[in-house]
Design a protein that fits this description.
Blueprint (H helix, E strand, L loop, with lengths): L4 H15 L3 E9 L2 E8 L2 E8 L6 E4 L12 H10 L3 E7 L5 E7 L10 E6 L6 E6 L4 E5 L35 H9 L7 H8 L5 H10 L13 H19 L6 E4 L5 E5 L9 E4 L2 H49 L3 H13 L10 E5 L8 E5 L6 H45 L3 H13 L25 E4 L5 E4 L3 H11 L5 E5 L7 E4 L7 H13 L9 E7 L3 E2 L10 E2 L3 E5 L3 H7 L11
Antiparallel strand pairs: 1-2, 2-3, 3-4, 5-6, 6-7, 7-8, 8-9, 10-11, 10-12, 13-14, 15-16, 16-18, 17-18, 17-19, 19-22, 20-21
Helix pairs in contact: 4-5, 7-9, 7-10, 8-9
Length: 598
């Protein structure tokens, strides 16, 4: 967890600078473990987020606005009763513990002064937000309630005395001297890596911060204590001392590291020089907000995608089971022509057949050499009745087979459609794209339209306008790519002109690609690049050579009643293309604001 005590100290300083003296105007609880305080101070309003989420516990200012439930949860109502209209006195932290105390000057129902403490404990799965009556040190309520049945150390219930989290028995690096530091080192196993040693003995230091301290000592993070002499221990101490002295004076170097693609990776209250990642600097609250906004967005995308993929897998499994049953029916009707032959041979030889026979052997005049065919008979029927019985069985089997073949064709078409939707889901990287797929599955009746609470903001159906990806070829032609069926239909049927060039992987689910010709002749380079995009944004992304069909848009049409993304086309030519991620990055214009590669 990167949210360490040092980060909290940097957050605390900024909050004291920005919110002290501010009035709490509104209180919200958008999630079960999350509170947002709207604080007004000197003409500006800030949103203070407090989270007790097991994976994302934190406190910081945020610019993210979430939808709130129509009926506020109980804890939110308790906070509104006691804190709305109150003024923020201060933010306090004991050493570098991950516990922040918010002192609030509030009023009771009679207007009398009634100070309150709002305590945010950032302790992983034990995180909590607790409202306390400081005059008697009594808990008013907690966002997570539990009794001694859950925790032998303390209870978090209304009316119980407030006990802080159990002490970690670590040294405060802001107060420790070199002698105490060396004693801590001597108390460690010789096999302990230096970053682990620092994190184990000193409070408020995350793994990233400890690696940075070791890096600033010119030592490898893999160095163990047994490899250190007096020189190395002195270097580590000086590195720790040079970090803690500015922190003790309220001077920090907030840092956010990002991947090459700009995705936040880690944050700290000090500059993380040891990483080879890009680094962004700014206010601690802003960097934390960026980090967790991205994390929550990613978690929401993954959760939504997983749910849609699971629904799709169920439908695909249903179709595959249905196809197996159809194959069994086809096997059962495979002898239909033999039944017709029996009927014809019996009809042609009625004059030769006697009564009460169990079988008869007749020459098959349909084949050369007139091979003999043995035909089972019902002895209780006349030869003519046996002949008619075989014709009836033949017609029944023939009709059954025709019906099953039609059902097989429909099931395979549906299966191909769902596999195409699955390919779009695999490549989706934005909530808007997933919402387009969800809406398509709802319209195709694979999912139910979610019911919303009366009065909810989502009751009004929002019309989502698909936003295909935009690219520009090396020769200046504009290229568009649809990442799902909604985008494909919009791109092909509404955006593209008759003279534009249309591309799609041959017999493989994938994106529709349009080259905007502007009445110009498309260059071979542009055609090859567009084919590369079609190959990359298809189910065959992992292949080396992918066949891609291309034709003018005027030769592409959508049959009435066809499923989303389904079209027919003619007068096409085929070109082989290689899915190339570097090509996608090179041609991307980023006009849509969507994630190009996932």
């Amino acid at each position: 967890m990167p949210f360490d005590g040092l980060v909290l100290a940097a957050v605390r300083k900024e909050l004291n600078d920005k919110l002290t003296g501010g009035r709490i105007e509104k209180i919200y609880q958008p999630d079960k473990d999350e509170i947002v305080l709207s604080v007004h101070r000197m003409g500006s309003r800030c949103r203070l987020l407090l989270s007790a989420n097991a994976q994302n516990a934190r406190i910081h200012l945020t610019s993210t606005i979430k939808e709130n439930p129509i009926t506020p949860p109980l804890f939110c109502m308790v906070l509104r009763k006691h804190l709305e209209g109150g003024r923020v006195i201060s933010f306090e932290q004991n050493g570098l513990e991950r516990v922040l105390l918010v002192k609030i000057d509030s009023r009771d129902e009679l207007g009398h002064q009634s100070p309150k403490h709002l305590i945010c404990e950032i302790m992983g799965k034990h995180s909590n937000i607790i409202l306390v009556e400081p005059s008697v040190n009594t808990i008013i309520d907690g966002i997570k309630r539990y009794s001694h049945a859950v925790s032998r150390y303390r209870e978090v219930l209304p009316g119980r005395p407030y006990l802080p989290p159990p002490p970690q028995k670590k040294l405060n690096p802001l107060l420790v001297d070199e002698g105490q530091f060396r004693l801590a080192c001597l108390d460690s196993s010789l096999e302990t890596a230096l970053p682990d040693l620092l994190q184990r003995h000193f409070e408020g230091l995350s793994a990233a911060t400890c690696r940075e301290i070791v890096f600033r000592s010119n030592l490898s993070p893999d160095t163990i204590l047994d490899q250190c002499g007096d020189h190395e221990l002195r270097a580590i101490w000086l590195s720790l001392y040079r970090l803690t002295v500015p922190a003790g004076e309220g001077r920090f170097e907030p840092c956010l590291t990002t991947s090459i693609k700009g995705k936040p990776q880690d944050f700290a209250a000090i500059d993380l020089n040891h990483t080879r990642l890009k680094r962004k600097h700014g206010e601690m609250n802003s960097l934390i907000d960026i980090f967790f906004s991205d994390r929550e967005q990613t978690e929401k995308i993954n959760k939504t995608k997983k749910a849609l993929i699971n629904s799709l897998k169920k439908e695909i499994a249903r179709l595959e089971k249905k196809l197996d049953l159809y194959e069994e029916s086809l096997d059962e009707t495979a002898g239909a022509e033999k039944l017709r032959l029996y009927g014809e041979l019996l009809t042609a030889n009625l004059y030769r057949l006697g009564e009460n026979k169990h079988e008869v052997s007749l020459e098959n005049f349909h084949e050369k050499g007139q091979q003999t065919v043995t035909i089972p008979l019902d002895p209780h029927r006349s030869p003519a009745e046996n002949s008619q019985a075989y014709f009836k069985k033949y017609l029944k089997a023939k009709n059954t087979r025709s019906a099953v073949e039609l059902q097989v064709a429909q099931a395979r078409e549906e299966l191909n459609y769902l596999e195409g939707v699955g390919a779009a889901l695999d490549q989706a990287g934005e909530l808007s794209e997933l919402e387009e797929v969800r809406q398509e599955l709802i319209e195709q009746r694979y999912l139910k339209q979610p019911a919303h609470t009366p009065g909810s903001r989502k009751n009004k159906k929002e019309k989502l306008i698909p936003k295909p990806l935009s690219f520009r070829s090396s020769d200046g032609f504009q290229l568009f790519v649809g990442k799902n069926n909604k985008q494909n239909d919009y791109l092909t049927l509404k955006m593209a002109r008759e003279s534009d060039l249309w591309l799609h992987t041959k017999d493989i689910p994938g994106a529709h690609v349009i080259i905007k010709t502007e009445e110009k002749e498309v260059t071979p380079t542009t055609l090859s690049e567009a084919a590369g995009l079609a190959a990359f944004f298809s189910k065959a992304r992992g292949s080396k050579n992918v066949p891609v069909d291309y034709t003018l848009k005027k030769h592409v049409s959508k049959p009435r009643g066809a499923r989303p993304g389904m079209v027919i086309y003619g007068q096409q030519k085929t070109i082989m293309a290689v899915p190339d991620e570097d090509l996608v990055k090179k041609l991307s214009t980023g006009d849509t604001g969507q994630s190009i590669i996932n």
